[in-house]
Amino acid sequence: RMFTAIIFAFFLPPAVVNSVVVNFFRHRELWEDRELPSATYGWVAFCTANVVCELPMAVVSGTLYWLLWYLPVGFPAEASTSGHVYLMTIMWSFFQTSWGQWIAALGPTYGMISNVLPFFFVMIALFNGIFTPY
């Protein structure tokens, strides 16, 4: 059961963040070339659209992950426990996508962000609570 928490914290964020970063740069290039010069949409609309478009897929993928992870392993089936874990799974999915967009917005080029992504992955692995001694 503990191994499933390690998978959730270590192996999912790189896949999700890498896909979000690529989409963010593609959308940002389109926005900078088309929308910024014409002043049709500002950066607030751009950022809001990027966040909102990721939310439905985060809910779907978080729900699918929770169904395939929580129920077969045999974790507690009480509504309060399973509901809390489901809520945290969905919130983690929201965090991964918004965190990927935040990291992508830090840098001017995709190459630079690709070079700093491993640092962020190591930091989230170190500070997520898995390595915290009790």
Span from first to last CA?
17 Å
Number of helices: 5
**How big is the Rg?**
17 Å
- Poorly predicted regions: none
H/E element string?
HHHHH
Class from secondary-structure proportions: mainly alpha
State the share of residues found in helices, binned by percent: over 70%
**What number is the mean pLDDT?**
86
Shape: globular
Beta-strand proportion: under 5%
| Count of domains | 1
The counted number of beta strands is 0
How would you sum up the major sheet? none
GO cellular component, one term: membrane
Pfam family, one: ABC2_membrane
GO molecular function: ABC-type transporter activity
Organism: Verticillium longisporum (Verticillium dahliae var. longisporum)
How would you describe this structure to a colleague?
By secondary structure, the protein is mainly alpha-helical. It has one domain. Helix content is 84%, strand content 0%. Helix 3 runs antiparallel to helix 4. The two termini are 17 Å apart. It holds the Pfam family ABC2_membrane.
Keywords:
134 residues, transport, 0% strand, mainly alpha, ABC-2 type transporter transmembrane domain-containing protein, single chain, ABC-type transporter activity, transmembrane helix, signal
